[in-house]
Amino acid sequence: MQALVFDRPALDTSATRIARLEPPTPGSGQVAIRVAYAGINFKDVMSRRGDPGYAPRWPFVPGVEVSGTVVGLGPEASGHRVGDPVVALTNEGGLAEIAVAEAALTVPMPAGLDPGRAASAPGALTTAILLHDHAARVRAGDIVLVHSAGGAVGRSLADVARARSGARLVGVVGAATRVGTARDAGYPTVLVRGDALAADVRAGTSGRGVDVVLDPQGTAFLHEDLAALAPGGRIILFGNAAGGELAALPPTHLLYRHNASVGGFSLAALSADAPAMVAAAMRAALYMLAAGESTSEVVVLPGLAATPDAQQALADGAGRGKYVVRVSG
Ligand SMILES: NC(=O)c1ccc[n+]([C@@H]2O[C@H](COP(=O)([O-])OP(=O)(O)OC[C@H]3O[C@@H](n4cnc5c(N)ncnc54)[C@H](OP(=O)(O)O)[C@@H]3O)[C@@H](O)[C@H]2O)c1
């Protein structure tokens, strides 16, 4: 089979190639899927960079999410039959003609949903639903600050908040070039990250501050996040976009001072520990897509050969929407 391979850690596309590999065999509780479409995610960039914990071996086949058809079942894999059209969270190995996924993280493709769009559901949109409903428990009336609001997760969070809580959103982006993208996704207020972030947030919320901060920027802005919180506010850390060392959490007295909570979210860890919760969120994400509740643009690339440039665009912060690649079929 053909697959996209990272040979070694690299900051550019120099160690990325399309390779011919033996197809993977589904293990216990897993299914093999002929991949029709696979999503491209910032996690590909983090594994390509060699961030700790992302690529467990080299060469490495990235690919978090797929749509396609079940072509094999491992021992103890229940709930699916060969020939079923499905959508799956693979966590790795999705950018290949055949991928394996846990049966528990594989869900039926909704009838009538475009399989290219469906392949965009398990990563960003599922993450947004889990952040909104479970990690941050966003409620109607909350004001929610979203860092990296112009990225795929940020845009999905706007869709999810619109559909599920009606929470008021404040978007934050790292460059003025991403303001328009975040506005178009549904953020009425978009701030460009700068030295006065907390002051800007307070100015934009009549001094009140925000109830929730969703932050994929590691610990780089944690003190600004704390200073931007309303009493009882909560911060959910869910990424480390720049890579590098994570700092310690703020000292306890600062949490008292701000009546604040700090939590974390990882889709990969949750899919290992609570696959049924992740699968339910994937079904909800697919329902949103089928119901037209997600406005995020999906850019379909014609084949694996187009993937390295799209991954580089994400690495450069220059993505043009959510990328999905047609792999076979
Ligand atoms: N915890 C989880 O399970 C989980 C799941 C999905 C995604 N994530 C994380 O969420 C973040 C966004 O993912 P996405 O799918 O929305 O990706 P995306 O569409 O590629 O957007 C990534 C965003 O990260 C920022 N960025 C890009 N390169 C950067 C760099 N070198 N240093 C600092 N910031 C950079 C940019 O936002 P700015 O405008 O802020 O600069 C960009 O819009 C990523 O960090 C990803 O790893 C975590």
Please provide a brief summary of the model.
The chain has 329 residues and is α/β, with parallel strands linked by helices.
Structural description of this entry:
It is a single chain. With 329 residues, this protein is an alpha/beta fold. It folds into two domains: 2-120 and 296-326, Quinone Oxidoreductase, Chain A, domain 1; 124-267, Quinone Oxidoreductase, Chain A, domain 1 (Alpha-Beta Complex), CATH 3.90.180. Helix content is 30%, strand content 26%. It contains eleven helices and 15 strands. It has helices at 42-49, 115-118, 121-135, 152-164, 179-185, 197-204, 222-227, 252-258, 267-273, 275-290, 307-315; strands at 2-6, 16-20, 30-39, 65-73, 85-89, 98-102, 106-108, 143-147, 168-173, 189-192, 210-215, 229-237, 261-264, 298-301, 322-326. The strands form three sheets. Strands 3, 4, 5, 6, 7, 14 and 15 form a seven-stranded mixed beta sheet that branches. A six-stranded parallel beta sheet has the order 10-9-8-11-12-13, with helices on both faces. Helix 3 (121-135) crosses helix 4 and helix 3 (121-135) crosses helix 10. The mean pLDDT is 96. Residues 41-43, 46, 123-124, 127, 147-148, 150-154, 173-175, 178, 216, 238-239, 241-242, 265-267, 314, 317, 319 line the site of NADP nicotinamide-adenine-dinucleotide phosphate.
